[in-house]
Every structure is written in C-alpha cells, then in structure tokens.
Sequence to fold (1015 residues):
Amino acid sequence: MIAKQKSLTVLLVAGLALAGCESISEGVGFGGVATTSGGLPEALDLGTSADAEQCRATRRIDMQLAGLGAQYDVFCGSWRRPAGIIQVYPEQSTSELETFLSGCVRGQGVTGEAVSQEELQLASSGLTCPGTSSADLFRDIAVRDQGNGLVSAGRGLPALLPVMRRGAAAIVGNEAPVELSASDVEGLPGVVALQDQEVLRRRGHKRNASFRFALAAEDFARAVSIQDGLFGGDPVRRADIALDLALNLSSQGRFAEAETLLDDARDASATLGTPWLSDKLTNYRAVHLLNKGALREALAMAQSPFSSQTTGAIAAFDSAQSGGKLTTISPRAAEFVNQRRGEEVPPLYSDSALEPGIRATILKAHRAYILASILDLRGREGAIDALNEADVRVSAAPAGSAPWLRALIGEKRALTALKNGRASAAESQLLSILADWRSREPRSLLTAQLLSSLGRAQAAAGREEQALVSYREAFDLYSSVEGSFGVSPDRAGEYLDLLVRRAGDGGNAQATLDFLNAFEDVVEPRAAAAMAQAAARLANDNAATEIRELQDAERALADAQKRLQEEAGTADPVRLAELREATDVIEQELLAAEDAARRAQPQYMQLVNKGASATDLVEAVLPGEAFVAFAATRSGGFGYAVFDGRVRPFRTDLTSGEAAKLVRRLRLTLRSRRGGTVPYAVAQAHDLFKGVFGPVHADMKSAGVETLIFSPRGSLGSMPPAALVTELPLDGGSMRSRDYSQIAFLAKDYAFISSPSAGSFVATRRTERKSAPGGLTVFGPPTPPRSTDPWINRYSQRMVEAGRPERCGRVFAGQDNLQAPLTPLAPGVASSFRRRTVDGSAFTDQAILNDPSIGDQQVLVFVTHGFFGDGFCITEPALLTSLGSEGDALLSATEILDMEISADLVFLAACDTARTGEGAQGLAALFDGAQLDGLVRSFIYAGARAVLATHWVADDKAADAITRQFFAEARGAPMHEALRNAQASLMNASDTAHPYFWAPYVVIGDATHALDARS
Fold:
C-alpha cells in the first residue's frame, strides 16, 4: 500500500474480473502497486464516491491508447457501465491527454461558478468539462496529476471527484491528495441524484409509463451520456434507446405511443445513415405489429431484406467463422450484446462500438426468430425452417452472445414439441433452458416467461404438482420484478385453470387463496399504466419519504432474494444460513416500511397492492352485496365471486377473442340512427351474460344479493353489465316487436357498482369518508374546436410551444362530431344543490386547474367530450375544454391527478367517454375499457369518492330524465340505488326500454352513500 494512502487499497485481479483480489504490499511495480508487464496497475480500489458507493478502476486490456497510454474504467456500486474514465500517458505523449480533456476549463467549480485559488488548489488541478453536446444535461468533472514520468487524468460524473483524485494520483505513484471535506462533497452535483445508467433507464421507463414524458426523456438523455463515457450525447445511441423504449411500450399494449417512437427512430436512422439501426428498426416494427395482431403486416416486415452493409457484415462474419478466426467474444463485447437487466423487457444487441459482424449475425438470428413466430401463428409453412435458421445463426455467434435470444429460440422449440404432443420432451428442454438462463438472471421477466411455459408443459405431461410450483414462482416474478405491470390475461389462463379445478366451489381453502392471488396479478397493460401514473403522483406527495423507504426496502429484498437464489446450491451451510437470515431480516424491514407507507399514504398502497386477501374481501362485502371479478383469457374465462361469507372461484368457456367479438357486436347496436335505434343484440347479450356471470348468478340470487360490485378486465370494461340478458325471450332474441320492456336485463336483478380492483374496493371501504363543504359545479359545454385555418394555426403554435410537432395543431380537424352542440345540464337538474356553472369560453383547462374552490365541491359535473389519445398529440386520456389564452384545451389524466378534490361524486355527463359505435372515426374511436378506466381512476385517485361515467352519448330526452331522477333520489338513497331506480323508469317503458337510452351509465368507486344536498 502506498504510504499515507490510507483510503486506497490496491487490488490484483485476473482479467477484467474483480474476483480473487488480494492486497499488494508497497514496493511492487511502479508507484508501489500491482503491475502488468507494462508497469501499470491492473486494478485499483478507489474507496467511496460522493454518493457513498464503493468504486474500483479496471484497466482496459482490450484497447491500447496512442503513445503507449492506458485507460481505466471506473465502476461504482452495482453500476454495470463505467461512471468515469482515467487515462495515463508517458510525459512525452501529453498531447493525447489534452485531447481527452478537450473542452475542460480551469478556474470554475463543478457547477460552473468561478472559484477561488484556494478552492482550485484543493481540487487538485480540478477542471470542469461541459461535454461536446450535452452541456445542458450536466457537467463532467476532471482531474489531472503528474509524477514518475507519467501524466494521468480522470473524467467522470461530479460525484466521482474524490475517486478521480485518488485514482489519478495513485496511477502515477503520488501520495493520495487531501480528502475533500464533508461540505465539499455535499456540494457536488449528483450526490443525491441517482445517475447510474441502469437506474436512469429504469426510472425513464417508469416515468414514461406514468405519462411524464419530459422527465423520462431527460433520464434517457443522461443515461446516453453515461453510456458514452460522459463526453456528450450520441444520436445513434439515443435512437437505439428510443427503439428499446418503443418495444417496451408495444409490449404493454400502448401501440400508438410505440409507433410514434418507431417513426422517430426511422427518421433518425435515415438522417444518421446508420444501416444496422435501420435493420434493428425493421425487427422491432415486426415485433410491434405482432403485438398488435397485425400478422400479415408483421410477416411482410419480417421478410424485408437487410441493408447491404449488414449483409456484408454477416458474410464477413461467416467467413471468419469458417476460417476459425472468431470463436470467442470479449467480455466487453458480450456486455454490449446483452446489456440488459432482469427487469428490462426489450433485448439490446447494439452499440456503435460493437464488432459489426457479431451485431449483424444477432440481428439476422432475431429476425429469423420473429419470422418463425409469425408463421407459426398464421399456420403457414416455413416456421420450423425459420426457427432452424435462427438457431444456427445464434449458435454461430461467439460464446456469450445474446443468451436471451438463445433462450427464446429454445423455448419456441420446446413449445413446438408440446404442440405436437411431446409434453415430456418439452418439459426436459425447458428445464435445461431455464437452468442456463436462471444462472444469468434468476429474477427477471424472461425467467418468469420460461417458468410459465415450463408449467404449461408439466401440466400437459400430467405433472400437476410440479406445474403448480413452476407457475407459482413465475407469478411471483411477474408481480415483483421491477418494471413489470403484472401478468397478461393470456399468459395467466393455464395457471388459473389448474387452480380453479383444485379450488372447486371454494372448498379447498389453499387453492382458493392461490387462485385469488394469481387472479389479482392479472393486469391489463393500459389499466396498469393508469395505476402507475396515479402512483407516480402520489409518491411525490407528502408521504414521499415513507414511500421512498418502502421502494428501497423492496429493492433490498429483491437483491437479497437474488443472492439467495444464486447461492442456493452452495455446499457451505453456514453461508446459506447467513443468506436466509439476511433475507428474513430484510423482509421484516419491508413489512415495517409497508405499514408506515400505508399509514402515511393509503391511496398509494391501494395502487401498488392491487390484490386483497380472502379475509379482507369477505369482511368488506356487506350483506346483500356480491363482489365479482372476471377476466377472459385465451384459455377461457376466469373469475371469483365473494358473497354470503365465501369466495367462489369459477371458470367459463368465454375466451378473450370471443369476449371481444361479443362486446363489439353489442356496441354496434347501442347507438341511434335516422329513424330510430338499431335492434339490440339480445342473443349476444345473453351469451356474454353466460360467459361472465353464468356459474354464480343463480347462487347470488338465492343468497339475496341485490348489489353487484363488478371488477372486469380487458374489453369487458367497454360494456355495462346492466345491459346483459339473463334469459332469452321466446323468439330467441330476434326481437321483431322491438319492445324491450320485457327483456330480462341483468339490471332488473342488481344495482351495479364498478371497481378497478379488489384492492381498490377493500381500501375504499376502509377509508374514512371526507366531507366536502361546497355544492355542485357544472363545467361545460365548452366552445368546440374550430376547423378554420386561423384556429388551427393558433392551436399549432400552442402545440409547438408545448414541445409537440406542428402537425398536432390539426388533431381536431375533421372531427365533425365535435362541432355538434352538446346539451347543457338543464337548470332544473340538481336544483336542490347550491349550483354554479362554468361553460363556454370560461371553461378552460387552466381555469379548472386554477379554480380555488374545486377542492371543496361535493359534486363536479363535466359536460364535454372525452378522448383517449392518439398516443402522440393527445398522449393520455383527457376531457375537452375550451381553448384559453394558455393550455391545450385538454384536461389530461395527469392534470386531474393534481387537482386534489374531495367530491362525493364526479359526473361525466354527456361525455363521449366511449365511442358511439364500432366503426366510429377519429379520436373517440380509440376507446376501450382500460382507457376509460384510466380516466376514471384519475378522478378517484385525485380524491373523488365515486365517478358516474357514460359509455356513449345517450338520447337528450332520456339523459335528462335519468339525471333528474338520479339527483333527486340520491339525496335520500345510496347513489348506486338512485341510478338503478332512474334507469328502471326508462327500462320498463316500451319506448325507452332499449339499452341505448338507459344503459350507458356506470358508477365506479364508493357509491353506497347518499349525496347531502346543501343550500
């Protein structure tokens, strides 16, 4: 150890790994450190950074700098990317070092302010480096040292200043510099901020999922700068990250947003002239189209030719392989090919520094795998040949290349064997693939995917107990891995099928509990995005400290579980006991953090803990009520009903595809046309009833259930359950008489309340009701957007000012339905409330956000259109307002979350919160149940007790009758009963019994109390 360098321990390592390190005594090699044959140390322990993370420097053995120089990469904590760089040259090659420090200046602090000579001296020749193109993001810090005929310099994030000073001095054999004071360290930018590239990328994905796009862009830009060695932005890498983000969004079902990013990446690749980026874009577009179900377009994309440059790189790679010249891949290149953490969904197989032949062959292997998947789904020939090509290609790549793709190809082979009736062979293959992948990423989404495929194979092989173990572990990962929204319905179906058969009618308590837990992990992507959005807002409220501590505890437990998994096979029983004890301690700390967060911010915990225990549900359901949750999957329909003190799991034959078709058919008949209404699809309404409620309806009726709290998933959220039909009429549903007053609608059996989830329902029942002192405020109708050039030009300018493209100025153009006047809420409606109206030009998004009394209103009514986004110009669910002097004429879901209201009811009256019928054009035609759910959730998590929304714009006369009676009855009866009674008055009259008139209304949240009209 160098004299007086008490904080600097020098380590000797084998290769690039830091395993098996040992201290080196003073006097060994140059400067008293372990050296290579060139006289430079191989590795250095640099102590802690200003972020209190342990840092180390590793010499790059895969590169040689000009003038016999050397480079060290500095890694801190768990960073997988260098946080800084140290270079060293002989004194005669200092010009090379000046290039390394290009742009750095003396006499300024790390924040850019001038500093005194004393401070400059303390910083050990400190320099501030703005970077070449990222000065607006953050500043680099650099240090320089000289001794023993060598000159060294370090450059990195500001928080690395203490580390850089130690490292630069040690490499040239100088004594360690005087340590910075605590105040010096605290003043460094980045000490508090998480600037680790992996953390930034994960946070960027989360911010995008919560609609905070500007903040997400900043995270990704900073991640790029760290990736590029801290010297500024790299447009190629930025476009590459945009592709990864696009695929992530597509996998969540957020297709419009993904397409926007794919288009941006296309434009960038054309400008940059980077062929491999264009080829990767083609692969990702094919996957995106596959996610959308556009198989024909996906097939055409997957069959596209590669660029000539990529084709040439593949040929060169093949030639090198055949000549035996390329048999291994360096650890650094392998990292570039596989730079992914377990919680990241999209694969990354590109970097501008990666050897072209390796990148090209992985690109081709991936495209062949995509082609095989598409051909298999379409039942076309050639799927096996494409999969074989993918296998050959990925096998030809050097060892360590793209293990994620190897795993996916192997999984595809195993599932093909399963499809051909060879379940045992599929199980054996999947066990082998899983063992290999789990050794790399024990807790990842791909691990979960492989486990669920294994469970499927084991169940087909008759090994049910083993299948349950595999599925249980998969679902644990799906629900706990960072970045996961949960399990898609189609992925969950087979596991739910196993559990529901074991649970029976709820008699098997353990199987029932397992079913309940698994079901609540099933999440529709867009609904999950809405929860993430609300959670992001709540996490920044007054409970930020408790929530941050909870998130830290969750990460610590995940790390502990990963370590336990990695060393589960150790022969050291003491070590294994230590790991288990550490995991148990952290788990107890997590429980304590959860309890603190629940007390500080119960709404946040309601969001992140979607499920509820069987005991909680049974206690929350009152006599005369039933809670029913249902999801249609590719394997059939699954749900559970809670009533009469029991939880009853059940299964139906309703698949997700059939459910979507039935809902689409019903929606076509829930509209008016010239000359009257469209004949209602009674037979389809009965089929949907049987598929959703058939197994439990009779028992609920026998138990005296009168109120049904319904929690649907997916397309079922687009169809109000009240309009389903329990029994077909004698004519089988043809309804030649067109008199629907005698139809057995489900609304005649129950009053309905909708709930986003079981956890939301339980939390709502436990939350103390707020009392809003104000009256009722009606917002709208607004002044509609115009199709005139002056209005469009004005709106285009507003969009540009907001950072959106000019073309967004025409987002409302051609929307003829927006020009038709909406019917105001009649003056006589809710006349017993203290009422005010804000409409026309006064009804703007900024006026609402700045309204000081909105948080005190008991009832908020919005008479306007609702949009669910085009993914780009309108990026999230929103309500249309008038265009004021500021704002964008849209009250977005994010803005709603910031309103902090305490209303008993938010009424989206006459809102086009659903499309007027299948085939409708324009923005409203993008609606589905999950998106309506997202808009409604925003109001609920902003503080509203309940939301009354409409699935379509009903007849003016019928809407007036419904709302008048609802507000009159809600003074003395619970809101859900008031709505049912108001609907019944139209349902029982022959001229308004068609569901078009009475069924669009649905109440969501806690509607079991009356409204208190105040003078």
Q: What stands out?
A: The first strand starts at residue 9 and ends at 11. The radius of gyration is 31 Å. The chain has a mean pLDDT of 75.
